[in-house]
């Protein structure tokens, strides 16, 4: 009997871990109320009677982003800040425009895995696994290719074609967050002490 109970116990633990990670909303809709002063993990729900069709709509992702900046790319996010109805649903997306030689420089989403689809152009993309391997997983992508950046890992895209490039990426968080590595490390407010940065870099 004992081994059977052990097996059942392990199975229960495995199932509960799997369910705990892939959490489900507790209601059909919880459209965010952006005006609430209550601070919770996420955003509080609007009164369902006040929910409108437009709470689930975003328009304009066909528009070309302005890539005249130092990195030559522009991200148009569509997360819970743009679609209030995404609240509690664990999903969002971005459109990214790249000028020729434009990059989306190394960054990470603390809360989300990203799955990127190339709509136009040619890219080198990659991510780096965590310590101690720090292995670079990198690939050249063309139109129609899809690549995954696992949650939390530092990743990048670089347009290596001659023309403008476009990608769409989906993320498994309503609010994936973004940490551009260079900005976080060298552009924090206030600064991280420069002698410390000099030592570690
Ligand atoms: C794009 O951004 C640059 C730099 O901010 C600005 O000078 C330019 O007018 C913008 N172009 C358009 C079409 O908005």
TrEMBL record:
Name the positions where Mn(2+) binds: 109, 114, 155
Q: Which amino acid positions bind oxalate, per UniProt?
A: 104, 109, 114
UniProt GO molecular function: manganese ion binding
Provide the protein's localization. Answer: Secreted, Extracellular space, Apoplast
Under the heading InterPro entries, the entry gives: Cupin_1, Germin, RmlC-like_jellyroll, RmlC_Cupin_sf
Assigned keywords, A-Z: Apoplast, Disulfide bond, Manganese, Metal-binding, Secreted, Signal
Q: Show which residues constitute the signal peptide.
A: 1-20
Q: Which Gene3D superfamilies match?
A: Jelly Rolls (2.60.120.10)
Superkingdom of the organism of origin: Eukaryota
A single Pfam family it belongs to is: Cupin_1
Which residue range or ranges hold the Cupin type-1 domain?
59-194
Q: Which cysteines are joined by disulfide bonds?
A: 30-45
Matching SMART domains, A to Z? Cupin_1
Asked if the Swiss-Prot or TrEMBL record annotates the protein with the keyword Manganese, the reply is: yes
User: Does NAD count among this protein's keywords?
Assistant: no
Gene Ontology cellular component list: apoplast
Q: Which family does it belong to?
A: Belongs to the germin family.
Q: What is this protein called?
A: Germin-like protein
Q: Name its species.
A: Ilex paraguariensis
